[in-house]
Structure prediction request, 258 residues.
Amino acid sequence: MNEERQETIELTELTKPQRRVLGVLLEKAFTTPEYYPLTLKALTTGSNQKSNRSPTSSYSEDALSETLEELREMGLVGFVHTESGRSERYRHYMRHKFDFTERQLAVLTELLLRGRQQMGELRSRANRMVAIEGQTELREELRGLMELDLVRSSGALGKRGVEIDHSLYLPKEQQSNDLSQNVEPSSQQEAASPVVAEAVYPVSQPPSRDDESTVLLEEKIEQLSEENRQRKSDLAELQNQLSDLTTQFENLRSELGC
Prediction:
């Protein structure tokens, strides 16, 4: 099947169903390429699956068919007729419309499917589609998406606990999905921010044992928190694998006409 590269478009907002459909098409193209493009039935199953989706949904095939037509008119989705002609299939055109890296596309996919999330969660989830070696690599890709006004953050990307989200909400959704800060602060903003002085102990008065115990306790809490985050990440990966197997099963059933 020959495809021509189309002109780029400006992407500023998408409805909830449009974001879900586009996210699913992107995800399945990464994770189950052997069953991609998707049938309407497989797309519906992927849109309504319980894992790796926030919020969960219960879209009907008719509703998603209308959404697909909307995305087709926007140039973001195409219809593909298979050689057998048994069923129409659907694919995204994000690589044709935008000059994304594969990592940026994976990051955007996770944000479309889940919305706001912390850096560690985002890297772990996007990593199942494209390898992202560390937070430094993730920050580099996020800055590129921010320059396109497709992604925003709650603070400086190097700050602990910073949250990332896409910027494709409709105007009426913006308030409920507002982050405290949409972009990284400039050097002037950082300079203007109040600075909290660090505690300084005189040489004759070193930190007490209580202070040392507090530091050790905080380090232990941080270690346990990191272990807990890793366990959650492992569980999410298992859920994603189960979801992909479910999609493959549904695709196989569709191919066999069951």
